[in-house]
């Protein structure tokens, strides 16, 4: 993964990328029609008719992720429309983030080890390659062998998360996902990051098995979580 780099410099850069990612995700989701949000929520069983039916706030990011990063066949994704409109007015790190949003990669990632500087090395369990993830909270609690479904953004030499994370860490959810993802073996694996069936299957399984109650979304200025509380 290259020569040892200064952890503080990398973390400072990561924090700027995270702030910009949050900003542009919020700007993009503000432009998504309510009907689209309801449609994505219904895919997860989180809406009935024109009413959202959330049990807790941890479920809303899953709907936002689908609304931004997936679309029915023949229709453009909200993230692509946003980046197309915003890129001409952006430069530097902001442009990096917008391009990374358009190229975001969704998969089931296994923690291999901690990076020599900061962050963790992940293996894509579907494609088999390794990436370097820098995420201050996740890196703090991550342990080798953990598996989680995450959408990653390639911002520089490393990746950052889009903000959602689902732990895949018990036999029940593994069996459920194996059944839901049986079609993966017959697909071009390089196309999976934009196939809406992958995150939908993961999120439905997560909701069914109650794994989201161990995920807490941390604010930029919030203290790091205890090691037994996987963050995103």
Essential attributes:
two-stranded antiparallel ribbon; 232 residues; alpha+beta; five-stranded antiparallel β-sheet; disordered C terminus; globular
Structure description:
This protein has one domain (7-214). Helix 1 (7-30) packs across helix 4, helix 1 crosses helix 5 and helix 7 (171-180) runs antiparallel to helix 8. The protein starts with 6 loop residues before the first helix and ends in a 23-residue tail after the last helix. A hairpin with a 2-residue loop joins strand 1 and strand 2. The chain is built from eight helices and seven strands. By secondary structure, it is an alpha+beta fold.
Largest pleated sheet: 5 strands, antiparallel
Determine the structural class based on helices, strands and strand pairing: alpha+beta
The pLDDT mean sits at 87
Number of helices: 8
Instruction: Specify the overall morphology.
Output: globular
Brief digest:
The protein has 232 residues and is an alpha+beta fold. It has helices at residues 7-30, 34-43, 60-69, 78-86, 92-102, 136-141, 171-180, 197-209; strands at residues 47-48, 51-52, 105-114, 120-124, 130-133, 147-154, 159-167.
């Amino acid at each position: 993964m290259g020569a040892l780099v200064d952890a503080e410099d990398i973390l400072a850069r990561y924090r700027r990328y995270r702030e910009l990612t949050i900003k542009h995700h919020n700007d993009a989701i503000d432009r998504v029609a309510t009907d689209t949000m309801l449609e994505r929520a219904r895919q997860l069983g989180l809406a009935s008719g024109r009413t959202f039916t959330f049990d807790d706030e941890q479920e809303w990011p899953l709907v936002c992720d689908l609304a931004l990063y997936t679309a029915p066949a023949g229709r453009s994704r909200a993230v692509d429309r946003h980046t197309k409109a915003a890129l001409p007015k952006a430069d530097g790190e902001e442009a990096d983030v917008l391009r990374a949003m358009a190229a975001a990669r969704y998969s089931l990632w296994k923690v291999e080890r901690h990076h020599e500087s900061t962050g963790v090395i992940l293996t894509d369990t579907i494609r088999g390659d390794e990436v370097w993830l820098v995420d201050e909270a996740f890196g703090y609690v991550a342990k080798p062998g953990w598996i989680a479904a995450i959408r990653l953004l390639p911002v520089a030499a490393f990746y950052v998360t889009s903000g959602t994370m689902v732990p895949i860490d018990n036999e029940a959810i593994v069996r459920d996902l194996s059944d839901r993802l049986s079609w993966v073996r017959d697909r071009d694996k390089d196309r999976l990051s934009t196939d809406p069936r992958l995150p939908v299957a993961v999120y439905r399984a997560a909701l069914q098995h109650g794994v989201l109650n161990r995920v807490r979304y941390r604010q930029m200025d919030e203290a790091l979580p205890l090691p037994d509380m996987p963050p995103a």
